[in-house]
Specification:
β8, α5 and β9 form a beta-alpha-beta unit. The protein has 216 residues and is α/β, with parallel strands linked by helices. It has eight helices and eleven strands.
Length: 216
């Protein structure tokens, strides 16, 4: 079995974790575990949803794949030297993973742990400057791969689904990835075309920033 570990922390973004989970857990040869600094419930950034960590970092010391979600909680974590406990865990497990990956501002945690030094990477567009300050080089691409370094980063929130499908292709094969895509009926046909910064008008960007600033 391939073990995928998804670390959780206070104020993570739900879909960053659950999107990849929904893809990866469809494959019979893949197990997914949510890990954290303690076995406890972690609440999302608005506090409306909680997910349980079934294992601690000490319990999962050799995962095959790591998927680090983002969320406003990453800002507090990167203030700690090297990303605190989660950064230490990432540095300890990365040498033996098949892939170490992130979704959205989870890339900030990879960067704080020193795993993105000098590499191009992606994250949510609002965090591009922070990512650069942490030693990576932001690019506005949905998924960025560095396969020799076994690092993959995905942009904001929904892009984690795309990255997870690519992971299935890398871990199993293309047919498995397409089967997972069919099982979750992932066939995006959005009613609007404002899902990337380059496509959003000024009024849309202003409203998005307004909503972000209103979040506690």
């Amino acid at each position: 079995m391939t073990l995928v570990a998804i670390p959780l922390f206070p104020r993570f973004t739900a879909l960053d974790a659950v999107g990849p989970y929904e893809v990866l857990q469809r494959i019979p040869s893949i197990d997914v575990v949510f890990v954290g600094s303690r076995r406890d419930e972690m609440r999302t950034e608005n506090g409306m949803l909680g997910l349980a960590c079934d294992a601690t970092f000490d319990d999962v010391d050799a995962p095959d794949v790591v998927v680090v979600p983002g969320g406003i909680g990453t800002r507090e974590l990167i203030r700690d030297d090297g990303g605190g406990a989660i950064g230490g865990w990432l540095r300890s497990v990365h040498p033996t993973t098949a892939f170490t990956t992130s979704v959205c501002t989870g890339a900030l945690l990879l960067a704080a742990a020193g795993l993105l030094d000098g590499l191009t990477a992606t994250t949510h567009w609002r965090a591009a400057e922070v990512l650069n300050d942490l030693g990576a080089r932001y690019v506005p691409t949905r998924v960025v791969e560095h396969l020799p370094q076994r690092i993959i980063t995905a942009a904001g929130v929904s892009s984690g689904i795309d990255m997870a499908l690519r992971l299935v292709e890398l871990l199993v094969d293309r047919q498995a990835a397409q089967a997972a895509q069919l099982l979750i009926e992932y066939d995006p046909q959005p009613p609007f075309d404002a899902g990337a910064l380059a496509k959003a008008g000024e009024a849309t960007l202003a409203r998005a920033n307004e909503y972000l600033q209103a979040r506690p």
